């Protein structure tokens, strides 16, 4: 005699319900719930925008650095420009999309990109401190590095919270 499985004896309605429950479980495994960390990331993103519009080198802000509109005598190299690109890309765009769609893959991408941006930000500060005869890092650059650090810490907590 062969044993019949419970799915062999199910009505079509129960089978459809089982499929719907399985699909809901699959969707839940692909998404995350940031809770209060979403507000902290949002505040970090606002702080990041504030840092980008404040001076990074002399009177030039982060937008000027990003668009290469900095006077040559300030000695701003490529590292602050690369930092401006990555901080805006990962700190604002990818983080914003990740919070909107709440997918684990985007949470990890935000974590990795923001973490990399911290490293680039520290290098950007270092290049401003070691440029001969040029002003040091501006308050905007320091605030931007602090903001991306706060955002990264929140992404670490979110990305590693998956059960």
Automatic annotation (TrEMBL):
Keywords: Membrane, Transmembrane, Transmembrane helix. The chain crosses the membrane at residues 38-58, 78-99, 106-126, 138-156. This is Uncharacterized protein.
